[in-house]
């Protein structure tokens, strides 16, 4: 397990170094420094406030998922922030496991239910990104490969909706019905899909009424609208006059790009994806890199400060979480349920 973890970390670092090289290739550093000298601090303060609002909206989404439990909104806010903080400083997306652990520890939730919140949250994020990407399809005359990508993503969104509908239709027995068909897939693909689908369907049990589902979807859409607004604010902070849909395009490209394994915080990948997204709008590479670095550092430094404070408050040890990601319960009281090991996050 240690060897496997080390290989993943090494690959992530190498990929980040590659993208840092691509981002810095053929850069005029005088122009880059001039770009940073144009930053308007007032806009960045507005962006920071908006990021805090995003974390609050995420808290409200979690409260909707956990309606049948008595949860503290303040605890959820701190747990979410610590999770993002961990993802920014630890490899392998360990922030997701830490969030599950803290949710069970602070709110006394069963481990399966705590993990299900993260799975559903990811599903809602995917749905929201697909929604905004679909809007872009009607605004921007995409090239052929992007149109194809849009159709593929739309297909994923339709499958997502069908799974939700069928799960409700068959009273939660959908996973049993799909077990045999999935076993016929080649290699371990069927087993992997069965496990992932099982996790997702377990999470759907947290959503008991259509009204609850609607509120969760609205909160997910609002959360990503705010992230788009933060990107737009970064345009303004650096004096870029771009349309709002350019920020939508940036967020979609950025988040699908960040699925690529990399070092903690997506260093290098983040900046290169911003350059890639802004190039079609005629933005110079130096200016695009300035936007990417400003956007990245804005959310990174805010999350770092708050996550560090909340980690101290809740007595969370990041070093122990990194050393024992498969068994974070070793640092918990005995009454807290163990978290199932998972290296997919």
Write a concise synopsis of the structure shown.
By secondary structure, this protein is mainly alpha-helical. The protein is built from 14 helices and no strands.
3D structure, described in words:
- The protein has one domain.
- 74% of the residues lie in helices and 0% in strands.
- The protein has helices at residues 2-24, 29-37, 41-65, 73-89, 94-107, 111-139, 144-169, 174-183, 189-204, 210-237, 244-257, 269-278, 285-313, 318-323.
- Helix 11 packs antiparallel against helix 12.
- The chain is globular.
Topology:
Elements: H1 2-24, H2 29-37, H3 41-65, H4 73-89, H5 94-107, H6 111-139, H7 144-169, H8 174-183, H9 189-204, H10 210-237, H11 244-257, H12 269-278, H13 285-313, H14 318-323
Helix pairs in contact: 1-12, 2-13, 3-4, 3-10, 4-5, 4-13, 5-6, 6-7, 6-9, 6-10, 6-11, 8-9, 10-11, 11-12, 12-13
